[in-house]
Amino acid sequence: MSRSTKAKPSKQKSRYNTAFLVRMVVLLGIAAVVGGGAWYDRAVLIPDADAKIKRVMQLQTLPGEDAREPIASAAGMPPSSTEQLGSFTIDEYRFPRILPFLEPRVCSVVFNELGGVVETYAGPMSKSDRDAMTNRGQ
What we know:
Elements: H1 18-58, H2 68-75, E1 81-85, E2 88-95, E3 105-111, E4 117-121, H3 127-137
């Protein structure tokens, strides 16, 4: 006579212990923070920076009028860097991103000696434009 091969319920220990669960919670928390930062960057920071850059690019001033203050208020911040290039002043506005390895949005504005806007760039000024500005300002 054959014996019954019915499996008896046994209490097996789970192979996932508390340390595993703690690691998973920590890793999922980090993933949520990075994912939330990427979402905030794409949904809030980039459109805001692009709108400010567009406002700076559209701002028109008279050649003799000092436009540094209106440009800074349109950008919503003081210039990140200022460089003197011959008789021209280049103000660069850098709009930061939330994740440190991402390039910031940049807007460059060239002023004459009176503070009037000569040129605006949606991005950093290229080396060829800097060279042309140096030759023009001498």
